[in-house]
């Protein structure tokens, strides 16, 4: 009787071996993993469909869908510095490069008749509020990009952010959009393209 039980046990192990070998083969594991992943992906995509936290940040572009590139003649050291400052503050690089081109023509020593200083033409009070030295090209660009990003967060559009950068946020609020000042309208048109 013992021999019969032992024989049955050996036979059952022998029959089970091909099943377990198939179950643990690489191809079977891969197929099992794919099917489980598909189920999980389907469930998670439904669960997190409305999540704003998981969406990548968006950069708002003109109605044409693309932000115009920077095609200025200046290709010197400040251009890359401006691009880096723009990236740090989630500002479209080409938009910020066109802003600096319009503001100072890439002259780090530029001073406006209203008292704005440097590459990004920061007013002394704005530079103080941002905690930057407007005479230092790196800090000036850093402050300019940060200030433009702040205006974008305030107004929700790059066009209005540019208007606020030029005329001040209070003027944009007062007029409910781009102020009717010739200088500001031209500024937005040249940099934004509309």
From TrEMBL:
<dbReference type="InterPro" id="IPR008258">
    <property type="entry name" value="Transglycosylase_SLT_dom_1"/>
</dbReference>
<feature type="domain" description="Transglycosylase SLT">
    <location>
        <begin position="81"/>
        <end position="181"/>
    </location>
</feature>
<dbReference type="Pfam" id="PF01464">
    <property type="entry name" value="SLT"/>
</dbReference>
<comment type="similarity">
    <text>Belongs to the virb1 family.</text>
</comment>
<protein>
    <submittedName>
        <fullName>Lytic transglycosylase domain-containing protein</fullName>
    </submittedName>
</protein>
<keyword id="KW-0732">Signal</keyword>
<comment type="similarity">
    <text>Belongs to the transglycosylase Slt family.</text>
</comment>
<feature type="signal peptide">
    <location>
        <begin position="1"/>
        <end position="21"/>
    </location>
</feature>
<dbReference type="InterPro" id="IPR023346">
    <property type="entry name" value="Lysozyme-like_dom_sf"/>
</dbReference>
């Amino acid at each position: 009787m013992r021999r019969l039980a032992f024989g049955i046990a050996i036979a059952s192990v022998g029959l089970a071996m091909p099943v377990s070998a198939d179950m643990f083969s690489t191809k079977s594991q891969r197929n099992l993993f794919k099917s489980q992943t598909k189920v999980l992906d389907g469930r998670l995509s439904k669960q997190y469909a409305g999540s704003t936290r998981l969406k990548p940040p968006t950069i708002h572009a003109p109605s044409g869908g693309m932000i115009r590139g920077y095609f200025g003649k200046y290709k010197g050291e400040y251009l890359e510095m401006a691009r880096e400052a723009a990236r740090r503050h989630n500002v479209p690089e080409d938009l910020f490069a066109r802003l600096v081109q319009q503001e100072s023509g890439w002259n780090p020593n530029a001073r406006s008749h209203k008292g704005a200083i440097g590459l990004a033409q920061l007013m002394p009070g704005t530079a103080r509020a941002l905690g930057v030295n407007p005479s230092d090209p790196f800090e000036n660009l850093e402050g300019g990009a940060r200030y433009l990003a702040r205006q974008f967060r305030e107004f929700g559009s790059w066009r209005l952010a540019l208007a606020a950068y030029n005329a001040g946020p209070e003027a944009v609020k007062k007029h409910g959009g781009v102020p009717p000042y010739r200088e500001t309208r031209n500024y937005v048109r040249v940099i934004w393209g509309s």
